[in-house]
Amino acid sequence: MRKNIVAGNWKMNNTLQETKQLLNELMRQTKNTEAEVMVAPTFVNLESATQVLTGSGIEVIAQNMHFASHGAYTGEVSAAMLKEIAVNTVILGHSERRAYFNETDELLAKKVDAALANNLRVIFCFGEELSDRKANNEEPVVASQIANALFHLEASAWKSIVLAYEPVWAIGTGETATPNQAQDMHQFIRKTIENKYNSDVANSVSILYGGSVKPANAKEIFSKPDVDGGLIGGASLKAEDFFAIVNAF
Ligand code: 13P
């Protein structure tokens, strides 16, 4: 069956020294977790992070990548560059990338293809804005984000896809979707995938929730049947909080 995953998205936080310190604290606390645990440091610290975490069972993942294999794309990083330093999973489509760097569904479809072609697993993020939810429009928005970026894939490619539903209004705001709001949306997402593919694909894909997950609310959110874990921002920057969330499973 599908995996439980808790991934820390560090965003643009932590220098190299801070990265090493936090990872050492994490390693002391990771014991017999029920979930797969991942952390996403900034690009420049990925290689050091993989070295620190060797043998720990914690996976180091990237926050982004470019779709091209190489070339004149100043400031960008390719899938092959990630693979070479033993990074095997990449977050794509985070709402901050969509909002601040104009990443569109069409661009994200290309990034997904490049990641899969290089045997990277993708954590694909999407989610509605507050205005969408106020207009009761969250389901069509989410369905189109998924369809536009992922529905060209063959069913077999979905073994390398993890979904992360992150309502934009809940990211970094302290306002979490209620466990029922998360469950309702995750169930809708699974149904959407079943309608397009089949129940095997729908039931095998892990769907993470992201947006102000904290030690105090993780257990209730993760207890919902269609919530398979979390993508954690702010609370992943403190070892104690991150592991309280991991141990919520
Ligand atoms: P917060 O947990 O800080 O709300 O961030 C969520 C997020 O964006 C994870 O990718």
Explain this structure:
The two termini are 16 Å apart. Helix 1 (16-29) packs parallel to helix 2. The chain is 42% helix and 14% strand. It has helices at 16-29, 46-53, 79-84, 95-100, 105-117, 130-134, 138-150, 179-196, 199-204, 215-222, 239-246, and strands spanning 5-9, 36-40, 58-60, 89-92, 121-126, 161-165, 207-210, 229-232. It has an 8-stranded parallel β-sheet. The chain has 249 residues and is of the alpha/beta class. Strand 1 (5-9), helix 1 and strand 2 (36-40) form a beta-alpha-beta unit. It is built from 11 helices and 8 strands. 1,3-dihydroxyacetonephosphate binds at residues 9, 94, 166, 171-172, 210-213, 231-235.
Q: What is the topology?
A:
Blueprint: E1 5-9, H1 16-29, E2 36-40, H2 46-53, E3 58-60, H3 79-84, E4 89-92, H4 95-100, H5 105-117, E5 121-126, H6 130-134, H7 138-150, E6 161-165, H8 179-196, H9 199-204, E7 207-210, H10 215-222, E8 229-232, H11 239-246
Parallel strand pairs: 1-2, 1-8, 2-3, 4-5, 5-6, 6-7, 7-8
Helix pairs in contact: 1-2, 1-11, 5-7, 10-11
Bound molecules: 1,3-dihydroxyacetonephosphate (13P).
1,3-dihydroxyacetonephosphate (13P) binds at residues 9, 94, 166, 171-172, 210-213, 231-235.
